[in-house]
Every structure is written in C-alpha cells, then in structure tokens.
Amino acid sequence: MIKVFLPLLFFSISLHAQEGRLIPNPLRNIPKWVRNDFFAQHLDERYTINYQLSPHILSGDFNHDGRKDVAIQVSESKSGKTGFIIFHRRRPQALITHIAIIGAGKSVGKGGDDFKWVNIWDARQRSDISDDAGNKALPAFDGAAIYVEKRDSTRGIIYWDGKKYSWYKLK
Questions:
Q1: How far apart are CA 163 and CA 124, in angstroms?
Q2: Rounded distance, CA 121 to CA 86, Å?
Q3: What is the pTM of this model?
Q4: What is the DSSP track for 118-155?
Q5: What does the alpha-carbon distance between residue 50 and residue 5 come to, in Å, rounded to a whole number?
Q6: Annotated domain spans of the chain
Q7: What is the CA radius of gyration of the chain?
C-alpha cells in the first residue's frame, strides 16, 4: 500500500508545484528598454498598460528609420480611452526615446482618439495589406504599419507618413 501511495503523493506534489510556476507575467513580454522608458518618461502617471490584445506588443520599423520600434496598448487613466504608444528605438548616442501616442485621448485623423473597439492588431508591411480597391488605393508609406480591426467590422491602418502618424480606413 505504501509503495503505491508514496509515488502518487510525490507525483501530485510535483504537479502542484509546477502549476505555480506557469502563471504568465505579460509585463515580461515587453522589452526592458520599453519598460524603463515608460517609467523614466513618467508615462505611468497618465497611462496604464493594457494586455487585452494578443500579442501584447508589436514590433516593426514603424517610422522607417531602419530600427525596430515597439508598440504597446495603453489606456488613459482619467478618461479610460484606449490607444497605443509607439516607442521609437533610439540611436546609441541619443539621450531620450521618442514616443508617439495614438488614441488614448489623442486624435489620429479620422481614426479618433479612442481605439477601445480594436480586438485584432498586427504589424504589417504595405505589401501585406489589402483593401477592396486593391493595394493601389493605399496611401504611400514605407516601413511597417499597425493594422487594427474590430472583428467582422471596421478595419484600418496607422502608418508613418514621413512627418506624423496617420489613419487610413480600409474598405
């Protein structure tokens, strides 16, 4: 009886111990340099990082400067409006990281100032974005764009037009 009970006991204890280690921490998915800049620029005083979209972060060369940037989803603390913060990867000699806030209380063209409706997002190159009118109808941009969509409804892209981030609604 003891020969059967002891292995069962050790097996159940090891399963229980492993369960505790499997709790995911989504903050770990955000690169350390982004987390450091989020707090160093005191963005935590105005915004809360959201983990509602999967993946939790997007990576791509959004401003077409040859370096990978990172986008995270945030909510403005006062209004509850949702949007994104894009952290532009800085050059080694730069002192600050440039950021762009899209939505979360800041309007981006006809896209508005609240992207709470978004439940799908992705980083895409221009060639990977399709519109009913074909790719020729898309605005000219280089680098990656943030594709956003409400499932089976509205969809669009947030792209760098060379000076600022703009909104284009896809058909």
A1: 19
A2: 14
A3: 0.81
A4: --EEEEEEGGG---TT-GGGSPP--SEEEEEE-TTS-E
A5: 46
A6: 26-169
A7: 21
Residue with tokens 């009886």: 1
Using CA atoms, how far apart are residues 71 and 35, in angstroms rounded to an integer? 12
Sort 152 into a burial class: Cβ within 10 Å, 0-12 / 13-18 / 19+: exposed
> Helix (H, G, I), strand (E, B), or coil: what is residue 68?
coil
Q: Using an 8 Å Cβ cutoff, are 87 and 97 in contact? A: yes
- Distance of CA 25 to CAs 11, 29, 85, Å? 26, 8, 20
pLDDT (tens digit per residue) in 85-100: 999 998 887 788 899 9
* CB-CB neighbours of 99 under 10 Å: 15
| Mean pLDDT, all residues of the chain | 86
